[in-house]
Amino acid sequence: MKAAVVTTFGTSPSFQEFRDPEAGEGREVVAVRAAAISPIVRLLAAGKHYTSGENAGFVPGIDGVGIDGTGRRVYFLFPASPFGSLAEKSLVASEMMVPVPEALPDNLAAAIATAGLASWIALTRRAGLQSGEKVMVLGATGSAGGMAVQIARHLGASTVIAVGRDAAKLERVDADVRIPLDNGAEAALRAQFEKGVDVVLDFVWGEPAVRVLKAATHNRAARTGEPRMRYVQIGTSAGDEVPLRGDMLRSSGLELIGSGIGSVSVSDFMAGAAELLAAASAAGFDTPFNSVPLHSIADAWHGDTDTRYIVTSAT
C-alpha cells in the first residue's frame, strides 16, 4: 500500500510503499478515507511525545475516518503500530472504532474529532462541567481551542472566555469574552476571575499559563473559603514546565487536573468520540482545515503549522 512513512525522527514523512496490515487477534483492516496531521502526530513523528516509541520506521497518524471490514464508515483511534492512519490502510482494534453519522463528510468528521475530542473529554470526563458554569479557554485561537469554545457552549456553559496571544485571530473566535495576552491582559484576566470562572481548559501551558494562574489566585484566601476552580491541562505548545508557588494552591480553590492519554481510559476516549460525532451536526460544530492528498504529505507537513491538514487519499 501507499503510505506516509517516518524513516527518521525529526524529518517529514515520505510518500512510499509500506507493507499491508493484516487482520487478526481482534484487529481489523480499515480503508482510510481521511486522517489528520495534528500537533500530537507531529510530536510523535519527531520522537518528542511522551508516548513516542524508540525507533522510526512507522506510519504516523493516531486517528481517522475509514471503512471497516463490514463496510461500516467509522472513526478510529490509536491504530496498531506501525500502521498509523496516514496511509491507504490502517490496523485498528475492534473496540477502537465508532460509527460516523451519515450527515458528516469524511474530512469534516476527521477534523471535528481530531480538534474537538480533547476538550469534549476534558469537559465531560475530567472537569465534569455543569450547565451554567463559566469556562475559560487558554489557546483559543488554535483548532483545538476553537472547538473547545463551541463544545463548552454546547455542553451548557453560561459564559465562554477565549484567551490567546494572536489578537487578530482571537477576534474571529465566537466567544462571550475575548482576552488577548498583551501587556494589559492581567487586569482583564483578574476581572474575569473576580466574576468567577469554574473551568479553565489550557492547551498551551508555559508562560501564558503562568499569567493565567497568577491572575486566578491573586488576592485570594477568603476566610469563608474560595470557590472551586478546575484547571485542566491539555497541551504544552508554549512550554513543558511552569513555576508554581505552593500558596497559590493553599489560598484558592484551584484544582490542577490533567486530561489526556493515561489520565483518561481508552474506553472513555471512544465513548467521547461517539458522543462528539453524534452531536456535531445538530450543534453546528465546524473547524477550518485544508484537505490534501496523501502523495502531498511532504508539502502539508512543512505547511503552516497553524492550519489543520486532513489527508484524504493516495491519488
From TrEMBL:
Gene3D superfamilies: Medium-chain alcohol dehydrogenases, catalytic domain, NAD(P)-binding Rossmann-like Domain. Residues 10-285 form the Enoyl reductase (ER) domain. SUPFAM superfamilies: GroES-like, NAD(P)-binding Rossmann-fold domains. This is NADPH:quinone reductase. It comes from Pseudoxanthomonas japonensis. The lineage of its organism: Bacteria, Pseudomonadati, Pseudomonadota, Gammaproteobacteria, Lysobacterales.
